[in-house]
Each structure stands twice: as structure tokens, then as C-alpha cells.
Amino acid sequence: MAGLEIPTWDPETALLIGTILLEAIVLYVGYGGLERLFGPYLMKLLVGGEANAR
Amino acid sequence: MLDSLLDGLGILGTSPEMLALFVGFGLVVGVLFGFFGMGGSFLVTPALLMLDYPAPVAVGSGMAFVFGTAVIATLKHHDLGQVDYKLGAIMITGTTIGIEAGRASVYYLESLGLAGGIISVAYVVLLGGVGAMVTRDALKSNGGGGIDHEAADKELDEYEIPEIAKTIQQTVRIPPMVTLRGDVRVSAWVITAVAFATGLLSGFLGVGGGFIRMPAMIYAIGVPVPVAVGTDLFEIVFSGGLGSYLYGQGGGVNLGIVAPLLFGSALGARIGSAATAVVDADGIKIYFGGMLLIGAIAVGIGEIGSYVGSPTLELLGLVLVIGAAVVVAFAILYTTISSLRQKRHQRTTVTD
């Protein structure tokens, strides 16, 4: 029967969760950069002229 | 070396078609999360259950996805100064115990062979309940459900504390009392109780719990809406991280599911968040409520299909849950682009 347990150190699981954390930070920074670079161009393409994206 | 690492983490165990499906579904979920500030994540676990993943993998991977999404959203809200770190820190203890109790319940029910069924029923009740509430509020046009985008732009001291929160603050005065952002003074025990209840729900269903925690922070603790949103996300980083770790130790986190979902949702969340500046959320809220209701029906159909051994019904459930999310996400994108084009046309006409 499963019961409440105190988390124990497990390097493989830590690597797994660390990978997800790293991916999240990389995506935040990466998509932020892409938005600054291509955002205005994409808005122009979608709206058909100058538009202010947030 | 890389192959063995990726294989060990579960990436290579997912087919290219499934990776594409997860990226696409993540994109849709991200648009919904970015626009409504909640709700996207609790479509993931039922969808994984319907894809025949074992309950601990569906819940664990759903929670790991919530963790990644919360990291990204917290970074953004930190930049906006909308995170109460003191409140978040107090909540962590209650949430942690709640999550562990919820997780233990999942493994116990799994050992009895009941986990998938009971979790699906809990989702039907939750999605149906929240969906009905949001739809009713949208029909009354008085807001409720998701983030009030206009309210989020007010100053923190302009917020009025709800009557129920005032009553709780005046009646429950068990020390230690703490002062939070927006001059809110409340017992640390109230905060812990709210945290435990939402943590239990998180651990059991693999959701962030924001759709319960946010209203609870506003109505039970009395914190301003933007602080409730930002602190909720900060708290999910820890609770989701710990929950994912605990599920990961039992082999419940599949990176082949989480990584592509996150890849799509991070982009979708940016699009959804940008759309809030253009589109009035109240106009679309009814679709959101409808989507949750369809989600509840879909999970019910999928569960009946699984019970009677009908793959057609299971497939119908899956198509409904993904289809409803896709339709609402497209409604948001379509309305945003139409509004932008309309505004540009008006500007051009005025200039002429």
C-alpha cells in the first residue's frame, strides 16, 4: 500500500526535473528573443500593416 | 551517449506522430492558458488517460507539464511585480503535504486497479462544475472564471477585499498573523488550510490547482487579483516541481510527453497573452465554459468506452476533448486577428 513518504535523493529523477526546468527557461528566453526579432514582421504579415503588439 | 540519455528520459520512446500531436496540443493548451490564465493544464491529464497511458504516468506527466508552464509564467509575473513571495513561502508547506497525500492516494487506488476510473470521475465533476460556473457567469456577463484582464491593470491598493474574506480575517485570528501585499492581514493557518486543500487536488489530479487556488486566495485570504495570479504561479513552481519529482521517482514522468507539450505551450502562451491586449475576454468566456463542459462529457464518454471495452467511444472522447480545446483556441486567434484588422482599418479611414 502506498503511503506518505519523504522525498529521497535520486540523481536520475533530479536530472529529469532539471531538464524540464532548463527547457522552460530556454523556451522563455528563446521565444522572447524570437518575439522581439520577428514579432513586428509577423504582425505586419497577419494584419497587413503597422500594428502594435503588446 | 546522447541516445542513452534521451532513451533513459523517454524521448526516443515517443513516435514522431505522437511528438507532433503533443507539440500541437501544447500550442492549443498554451493559447488557452495565456489568454484565460487557467484551464489549459487540466485538459492534458484526461487526454493522456484516454491515450491509454497508466494513471500515474498521465497524472505525473501532467504535473511536470504544469511545473514547466508555471516556471515560464512566473518569470513573466516576476517582471511585472505581481508575486507575493511571503504568501508563496507560507503556502508551500501546506501544498507539499497536500500533494504527497494526493499522490499516495493515486498509487493506492492504482494498486486496487481503480485509479483511472476514479480520477476520470473526479475530472467529470470538476470540469463540469467549473464549466457550468464559468458559462453561467458568462451568460450573466458579470465576469468570473479566468483572469479579469481589466482588473489586472488596477493598482493593488484599489482592490476591495471580498466580504467573505473580511469575515474570515475577522473571525479566524489564530496566531501567527501575517501581513501580505495589498495590506491584507490574515492567520497563517487560513493560508495553510487553503494550501493543503489545493495541494491535495493537485497531487490527485496532476493539475496546478490554480482554478481552485486563485479564487481561494481571493475569497478566503483576500489578496488582490494580480497578486493571487502571480503568487499562485510561483507556488506551482515549487508544488509542481516537488510533485513531478515524487512522480518521477515512481517512473510517472515521461519526458517524451512533457518536452513537446512544453515546447508548444510556451509559444501558445505568448500568443494567448498577447491576445488579451486586443480581445475582450468576456466575449470568449462562454466558449471557455462550453469547452470545459464538453471536456467533462468527453471524459465521461471515454470512461464509459473504457468500461464497456469500446475503442470507438474512447476515440470519440479523445476527439471531443482535443477538438473542444482546438475550437476555442482558434476562436481566440480568429477574434484577435479580426480585431487587429478592424482597428487598422478604422485608423486608416480616420487618417484618410
Features of this protein?
heterodimer, A: 54 residues, mainly alpha, 0% strand, B: 352 residues, disordered N terminus
What does this structure look like?
The complex is a heterodimer of chains A (54) and B (352). Chain A is mainly α. Chain A has a domain at 21-48. Chain A contains one helix and no strands. Chain A is rod-shaped. With 352 residues, chain B is mostly helical. Chain B has one domain. Chain B is built from 13 helices and two strands. Chain B has helices at residues 2-9, 16-36, 44-50, 55-79, 85-111, 115-140, 163-171, 188-205, 210-221, 225-249, 255-275, 281-308, 311-351; strands spanning 177-180, 184-187. A two-stranded antiparallel ribbon of chain B has the order 1-2. In chain B, α5 (85-111) runs parallel beside α8 (188-205). The longest helix of chain B has 41 residues, at 311-351. Chain B is globular, with a radius of gyration of 20 Å. The N and C termini of chain B lie far apart (64 Å). Mean pLDDT of chain B is 78; it is low at 1-5 and 143-152. The interface between A and B is large, with 33 and 46 residues.
Describe the structure in brief.
Chain A is mostly helical and 54 residues long. Chain A is built from one helix and no strands.
* Straight-line distance between termini of chain B: 64 Å
Q: Rg of chain A, please?
A: 21 Å
What is the beta-strand fraction of chain B? under 5%
- The low-pLDDT segments of chain A are 50-54
Structure classification of chain A: mainly alpha
Largest interface: A-B, 33 and 46 residues
Number of helices of chain A: 1
Oligomerization category of the chains in this entry: heterodimer
Major sheet attributes of chain A? none
The largest pleated sheet of chain B is described as: 2 strands, antiparallel
Annotation, overall tally of beta strands of chain B:
2
Radius of gyration of chain B: 20 Å
Write down the overall geometry of chain A.
rod-shaped
Mean model confidence by pLDDT of chain A: 79
What level of helicity do the residues of chain B show? over 70%
Strand content of chain A: under 5%
Morphology of chain B: globular
In total, the number of domains of chain B comes to: 1
